[in-house]
Design goal:
amino-acid biosynthesis, 2 domains, histidinol-phosphate transaminase activity, PyrdxlP-dep_Trfase_small, 16 helices, Aspartate Aminotransferase, domain 2, alpha/beta, seven-stranded mixed beta sheet, 13 strands, Aspartate Aminotransferase, domain 1, disordered C terminus, Aminotrans_II_pyridoxalP_BS
């Protein structure tokens, strides 16, 4: 039996897509490299984990697991809407915020539509629009790793169907200030949908000069969708739940037609409610991440590395060599990081903030690897699967 006739007729937009790589598991690295402890610093997870209240909430679900979840996430929607000061009808929930990126792309994009985003980028900001047949235009960062608002403004036009931007940016961590965000929004056509990804919002919101995306977007007449997640600061990455706030509930009526009806399970909904109520755990998670982020960044700068300004729970830096080779040597020491391969950024690496002990392990391993010298380690293509953003 041959599948060739079927595969030959698959849309080119799908056939040509790069595969998104979700990184390596600690179990794989432990087994492959024979290390006793693994510092998993490639996925921007919360080292403090979820609030203890989450475990309590999950333990109370019991027999309800035999029933389908609430497709509207009603209790969570009411709770979150009250906190954000919006009507619940303007909220949509997904199996992680990336689920909502896919839904938005397939709802609002058609083949040939123009999408503008940044590079380096979160991979799904380019993959999902391309899957819908859109033409993706990427704008690089400035040499100092800050967001080039002037080039973004120059890139958009009345034909731009969607602008996708993460603030703080992933994988770099830099963020637009209030004035630059307002300038960018003012330059957009009323027909351009703004997909504003704030997956790392909680880490940046403690800074006085970080713009309130919900407020600034709400002050415009543009169509927009702001995305946030419970995966990062709330520590629920394993349960997969994110949410979006839309400019108009009419946008969500269309998106609901594209999403699967039970895309957020009972466990995730209950966990998110419990996590929202434990503000102390959220503050502790953010404080740990910001303190350790600054400590890692300073240690890297003292060693001569060029480090991006970060408002998130990770650090992005220029390794001075091909990051893929360096990442392979770090794996041998039990450290998982994220090397980058987008054109112009192949020497760069993203390292997540982990526990203090894991961060120390990373710094020590990096020092040991760097002392060996890249010339003795030609690029190992077997590590290529690590590099996709």
């Amino acid at each position: 039996m041959s599948t060739a006739p079927l595969l030959e007729r698959v849309r080119p937009a799908v056939r040509d897509l790069p595969a998104y790589n979700a990184g390596l598991s600690a179990e794989y690295v432990r087994r492959t490299y024979g290390v006793a402890h693994v510092a998993k610093l490639g996925s921007n997870e919360n080292p403090l984990g979820a609030s203890p209240a989450v475990a309590t909430a999950l333990g109370q679900i019991g027999a309800e697991l035999a029933q389908y979840p609430d497709p509207a996430c009603g209790a969570l929607s009411e709770r979150l809407a009250a906190e954000l000061g919006i009507h619940p009808a303007r909220l949509i929930f997904g199996n992680g915020s990336e689920d909502l990126i896919a839904i938005a792309a397939h709802t609002f994009l058609a083949p040939g539509d123009e999408v503008v985003t940044m590079t380096p980028a979160f991979g799904l900001h380019t993959i999902y629009p391309a899957a819908a047949g859109a033409r993706v235009v990427t704008v690089p960062l400035r040499p100092d790793f800050t967001i080039d608002v002037e080039r973004l403004i120059a890139a958009v036009s009345p034909d731009t169907r969607m602008l996708i931007l993460s603030n703080p940016s992933n994988p770099v961590g830099s963020a637009l200030c209030r004035q630059d965000m307002q300038r960018l929004l003012a330059a957009l056509s009323p027909a351009t949908l703004v997909l504003w990804d704030e997956a790392y919002y909680e880490y940046a919101a403690t800074d006085a000069d970080y713009p309130d995306g919900l407020q600034l977007l709400g002050a415009t007449s543009l169509p927009w969708l702001l995305l946030r997640t419970f995966s990062k600061a709330y520590g629920l990455a394993g349960l997969r739940i994110g949410y979006g706030v839309a400019a108009d509930s009419a946008m969500l009526e269309l998106m609901h037609r594209m999403r699967t009806p039970f895309n957020v399970n009972r466990l995730a909904q209950s966990a998110a409610l419990a996590a929202l109520d434990d503000r102390a755990h959220l503050r502790a998670s953010v404080r740990h991440a910001t303190d350790e982020r600054e400590r890692i960044g300073e240690a890297l700068r003292e060693r001569g590395y060029r480090v991006a300004p970060s408002r998130a729970n990770f650090v992005f830096f220029d390794t001075g060599e091909h990051a893929l080779s360096l990442a392979r040597r770090l794996l041998e020491r039990g450290v998982i990081v994220k090397p980058w391969l987008e054109p112009g950024y192949q020497r760069c690496m993203r390292v997540s903030v982990g526990s203090r002990a894991d961060n120390d392990l990373f710094l020590a391993a990096l020092h040991a690897c760097a002392s060996i010298g890249p010339a003795q380690h030609p690029i190992d293509r077997s590590c290529e699967s690590l590099s996709k953003p």
